[in-house]
Design brief:
Elements: H1 2-18, H2 25-35, H3 49-58, H4 70-83
């Protein structure tokens, strides 16, 4: 039952991102990583914020202890592409 509730909450969050141009999906991924114990500079312990968490998530990999919806990842990628144009 808990898993169903988690899915419903994620779906609600994802639809909000799809309709909100001011959303910060990359910040949400960063926060999820930090909540799971990943920190900037901790890559030697395999707990680096960007190398061990943020980048793998953007590459479509799963990271233990981190839950981010696919729409959030897609929105972050889209913002990064738009930012680099």
């Amino acid at each position: 039952m808990k898993n169903i509730m988690t899915v419903l909450v994620l779906l609600g969050s994802l639809s909000a991102y799809a309709n909100n141009e001011n959303s910060k999906p990359c910040q949400e991924i960063k926060t999820a990583c930090e909540t799971a114990g990943f920190k900037k500079g901790d890559h030697k312990e395999k707990k680096g914020l960007y190398k061990d968490c943020f980048q793998p998530i953007l590459s479509g990999q799963t990271v233990a202890g981190v839950t981010v919806g696919a729409d959030v990842v897609s929105a972050c990628k889209a913002k990064k592409v738009a930012h680099h144009k």
